[in-house]
Structure formats: structure tokens, C-alpha cells
Fold this protein.
Amino acid sequence: MKKGNIITGILFSIFSIFVILMSLQLPPSKNGVPGPSTWPIAISLIMLLAAMTVLINAIKSTDEESLILNTIDHYRVYISMGILILYLLGMYYIGFCVASFFMLYAFFTWFGEYKLIKRILIATIIVAIVFFLFTKILHVPFRFGILF
């Protein structure tokens, strides 16, 4: 487990620093209004802090427990990561609304015990709320992909 935590801490530290450096190329804040780089930098700093905490704790640890990666819980995580990768690809090709609907529906099916109509309804309502919030209130344009 110690080696896994060290590798995880290093990889996420590198990724966080990369995102921070890329975010610094975005336009800065103007007149007290946060710019497009504000949230990626803030989230990356939190992720960097968490990664460094994992790394430091792993280095200090004397635990040499082996890491088992083929339990049922791990398979659930792998499938969830696969769904999220498909979601990211789907957002690019078919747009936010459709990809988000399918991702939410998949997760409600995978983790919940809801009836079909309830899964469809909840996924639709969440996508509609997020779409309305960003397009009408925050005035953020959405890319719709090939389906819209």
C-alpha cells in the first residue's frame, strides 16, 4: 500500500501542477470578477495539497501491506471510471446535455435501485437545472455536439 500511495501522491502532484500552469495561461480576473482560471487553479491547489498529504503520510508510514486490486468494490470503481471517460468523450462529440443525461442515468442505474421512469426523470431534471443555471443565469455558452 505504501508504494501505491507514493505513486498516487506523485502522479496527482504532477497533474495538479500541470493544470495550474495551463490555467495560468487563461485570462486573469477583471474588476474583482473571477476569471476563467479561478476555479481550475483553486481546485488544483486543493488537489495538490491532498496529493502532498498522501505522499507525506506514505513516506512516514511503516505499513508494507500489499495492495489488492481485484475485489468487487474495485471493479465497481473501474466501471465508474470507464463511464466517466465515456462521459468526457461524449461531451465533446454529442454535447453536454445528452452526455450528462446518459452519464447520470448510468450512475443511477449502477448505484441506485430506482425504477426506470424515476431514473429518466431525475437525470433530465438535473441536466435541465445545470443547463438553465449556466446558460441563463451565468451566461456560459454550452457546446451541443452533433445531436443539437
